[in-house]
Design brief:
By secondary structure, the protein is of the alpha/beta class. Strands 5-8-2-1-11-13-14-12 form an eight-stranded mixed beta sheet, sandwiched between helices. The radius of gyration is 18 Å and the shape is globular.
């Protein structure tokens, strides 16, 4: 009979990981089902607060695709995507800004504060945090590519013991606002902060050898192996931009980047403080 793990066992296993991350900065990209399922949403908030209490400087970067789609439908507008990125005309940009920088950002801050977390809501427009230019490779409307990251407002919040909650909207030098892909924004912020880890919550277990078989999870990937996995078709579709962001962050100084299963309760804690981990680690 398998012996039940005691609380002491769990804490003993977690202790070296706590030591590893305490005092370091991590960036969590929050999206997918974990943002719409109330139980998972609560668990993510609890994970973030615990990290903060342990002295881990935690930055929460969020998207909001389902909420944006919901409001677009209510307004009689049809969501449209090109190459996995949201086509953002002027009307859609207004909705994106209202949802991300307004309702959703403040809802997340309120949830964290209700659990005695010290959180502050920011967006990429604040203090010119995410300076961007219009994406030109494809016609996507008001979609931005990040040109530079001003970490000052984030570092000020972290140095005050706060949890920065960042909505992924940026602006160009003329003050025009743009929608920015949340994975791209999280990676850029992690690089600029010199974060030790980038954690991305998704709706799948991680990178799968066979996309239709969740038991084929690949637990670790060295970034030099990525081109071969792309050529083999193992990395394809919606995973391409996510993994591209992981590779870019590792290449530019972030020590680890991991894509984890956000459908699991306390997915972040499982990844960071247990030997089993959670998802696919890129290094």
């Amino acid at each position: 009979m398998k012996q039940e793990r005691t609380i002491a066992d769990v804490l003993t296993e977690a202790q070296p990981y706590m030591k590893k991350y305490t005092g370091k900065t991590i960036v969590v990209k929050y999206g997918g089902n974990a943002m719409v399922n109330e139980e998972l949403k609560d668990a993510v908030m609890e994970d973030i607060i615990l990290l903060n209490m342990l002295g881990i400087k935690t930055v929460l970067v969020h998207g909001g695709g389902p909420e944006i789609n919901h409001l677009l439908h209510r307004l009689g507008l049809e969501p449209r995507f090109v190459g996995g990125l949201r086509y953002t005309d002027a009307e859609t940009m207004e909705v994106v800004q209202m949802v991300l920088a307004g309702k959703l950002n403040k809802d997340l801050v309120a949830r964290l504060c209700a659990r005695h977390g010290k959180a502050i809501g920011l967006c990429g427009v604040d203090a010119g945090m995410l300076r961007c230019r219009r994406h030109t490779e494809e016609e996507l409307g008001y979609v931005g590519d990040i040109v530079s990251v001003n970490t000052f407002p984030v570092e000020q919040a972290l140095s005050s013991g706060m949890i920065p909650v960042i909505a992924t909207i940026g602006a160009d030098e003329d003050g025009e606002t743009y929608n920015i892909n949340a994975d791209t924004a999280a990676a850029a912020i992690a690089i600029a902060l010199g974060a030790c880890k980038l954690v991305s919550l998704t709706d799948i277990p991680g990178l799968l050898m066979d996309k239709d078989d969740e038991s084929t999870l690949i637990h670790e990937v060295k970034i030099s192996q990525v081109p071969k996995l792309v050529a083999q078709g193992i990395i394809s579709g919606g995973m391409l931009p996510k993994i591209s962001c992981c590779v870019d962050s590792i290449a530019k100084g972030v020590r680890e980047a991991v894509i984890i299963d956000g459908r699991k309760t306390h997915a972040i804690l499982l990844e960071m403080f247990s030997d089993q981990g959670n998802g696919t680690l890129f290094y």
